[in-house]
Specification:
Helix 1 packs antiparallel against helix 2. The protein has two helices and four strands, in the order ααββββ. It has 87 residues and is an alpha+beta fold. It folds into two domains: 30 residues, no CATH class; 56 residues, Chaperone, DNAj Protein, Chain A (Ribbon), CATH 2.10.230. It starts with a helix and ends in a 10-residue tail after the last strand. The relative contact order is 0.19. Strands 1-4 form a two-stranded antiparallel ribbon. A two-stranded antiparallel sheet has the order 2-3. The radius of gyration is 19 Å and the shape is elongated. Bound molecules: zinc ion (2 copies). The site of one zinc ion has 7 residues, from loops.
Length: 87
């Protein structure tokens, strides 16, 4: 674990020295949460990621109800990693 970590660190440093890829290298070097792919957020199951869902149809137009689960963002904090994105 130590040797592998050092190797990843060196790769990260090299990438940073070349410039521009520091954040990406850090992300790759860190163990990512499998559930959210390291983003820290997962698609809201309540609204399927739309941020809202069709409620009761009133007249011709169906009312789009903002999803209370995700605050209409379509994303919720990943419970697996608590939103950190790291395993
Ligand atoms: Zn939602
Ligand atoms: Zn996660």
């Amino acid at each position: 674990m130590v040797a592998a970590g050092l190797g990843a660190l060196m790769t990260m440093v090299a990438a940073a020295a070349e410039g521009g890829e520091e954040n990406r290298a850090k992300r790759l070097a860190m163990p990512r949460c499998e559930k959210c792919k390291g983003s820290g957020q997962v698609t809201c199951k309540t609204c399927g990621g739309a941020g809202s869902y069709a409620g009761v149809a009133i007249g011709v137009d169906a009312m789009l109800t903002p999803c209370p689960k995700c605050g209409a963002t379509g994303k919720v904090v990943c419970r697996t990693c608590d939103g950190t994105g790291n395993a």
